[in-house]
Amino acid sequence: MRSCYYTQSNVPTLTTDDCGVSWKLIQPGESAPKRGGVYQNKVTVPNFPMQGESLFKTACKDRVLANIEVTYDYSIIDLINYVAEAKYLDKDNAKSDDATNAATMYETA
């Protein structure tokens, strides 16, 4: 059994040894320790532009109703602050380091 693994391209990995109090950024292609202790965790975050959309209804002046549809592109710039705010990415069984994660999980965060 290997004690480390190599990170994927375009997917930086963040690791913590203190339950998410502090994070260390592991760049794509570098080796990272496997999760082993109770206080250790790792999270991968996409490092490429993603797309999103938002649909909502709003009431304008004179009781005019409008359906609004917005599409946008976004990128996660500050990975450590992002993971610190999106704490559910770090919880057990979140599978946040799984390559098959849906982009909607990151968009919601």
What is the total domain count? Answer: 1
Low-confidence stretches: none
- Number of E strands: 7
Globular, elongated, flat, extended or rod-shaped: what is the shape?
elongated
Structural class: mainly beta
Radius of gyration: 18 Å
Helix percent reads: 10-25%
Question: How would you portray this structure in words?
Answer:
This protein is mainly beta and 109 residues long. The protein has one domain (4-47, 76-108). Helices cover 12% and strands 36% of the residues. The chain is built from 2 helices and 7 strands. The protein has helices at 79-85, 103-108; strands spanning 4-6, 13-16, 24-26, 31-33, 41-44, 50-60, 64-74. It has a 3-stranded antiparallel β-sheet, with helices on one face. Strand 2 and strand 3 (24-26) form a beta hairpin. 12% of the residues are buried. The model has no long low-confidence stretch (mean pLDDT 76).
SSE blueprint and pairings:
Blueprint: E1 4-6, E2 13-16, E3 24-26, E4 31-33, E5 41-44, E6 50-60, E7 64-74, H1 79-85, H2 103-108
Antiparallel strand pairs: 1-4, 2-3, 2-5, 6-7
